[in-house]
Please model this.
Amino acid sequence: MWGAAGRTNAQKIQTIFNKFVGGSARSDGIVVDEAELQRHQQLERLYNTTKSAKHFQREMVKGIEGIINANLKHIESIAKLSEECRKYGAPESPGGSTVLGRAALHFGAAHSAIEKERDNMDRTLGTQVGDPLKAMVTGAPLEDARSLTHRYDKLRQEAEALVSEIQKRNQKARDGLSNPENAAKLQMAEQKMGELAATMTVLGREAATAMMAVEAQQQRQSLQRLIGMVESERAFHQRSVEILNHLHAQMVGERQKSDHSGNNSTATATPAGGGGGSTNPFAGSAEPPPPSYEEVRGGGGGGSTGGGSNRAGYFLAEVVHAFEAEGPGEISLNIGDYVVVRQVSPNGWSEGEAKGKAGWFPSAFVERRQRAPASKILEASGAL
Model:
């Protein structure tokens, strides 16, 4: 539709507007001609940009449909695996009473939750991104604007034909070959050219306005849908990470409970000072006893000369998964609590103090923090 040939013909037509815009020659005819030429170039640009945007929107729709179809197969595969995990970990199954069975049960439930989130993301992509883009590709505004542009282009083609005819008949008149019939046809062509030029001016303005509106809509709506797609994917992945973190803590917790139970069944309690048996994971081992809890708060009750170096190994940790104490040597933790961690066991348990109470807890249930609110530090050390 548009190209080098079109630009050359536009320059030819420009000379005709100088004489026929408004039906007669005018002092401002050249300005009108230049404006009409700019209009033609503007429509050429708008046609190309809207065509490119339409192609991009169509590819976005295809991509989203492909993602949804691939996710459907993924959801189906994960659903089968989750069901097998549920069967193996069911209380009535042979593996239900084992640590692997309980971990498998957690695994199946977590991945079922993730795939539910994936299905929600797919629905969002389809209804809030794919469908609106598809409607824009086939929508009336774009087709109406293109129709105006095509009508304008058709008028320009008619103008090109009239330019050629007028030039030929003027040449005959200059060569002395004119006759009454040639003069009459020349007058009719000039009259038609005047009407055509006026129509082109109005139609060109309408086409440009419609095309600019479509271009702005394409840019704005496509960007909005692209951002919406990213937001939907981002929410899905964030939620998936949360579920996986919780699943990891559950599975590690099951393993640690199993290890802890095994240690308790074989450990020999050797309490100092006649105290009761200990359930901490270091019971019966060669590990030295933990430093006194007064050292955590900077108290001077301990007589150890190495107290300063011991305190240097302490750190603050935030509870990210709740833990319910099951033995006398353990402490319960709530999400959001802060713990002064004093030592970390190689078998996955840590020992520390929270809210003035000391004991053991799973290491995976807390995360180390470089900074914490002053109130949380005081609370963790039991000063509140």
The CA atoms of residues 89 and 96 lie 4 Å apart.
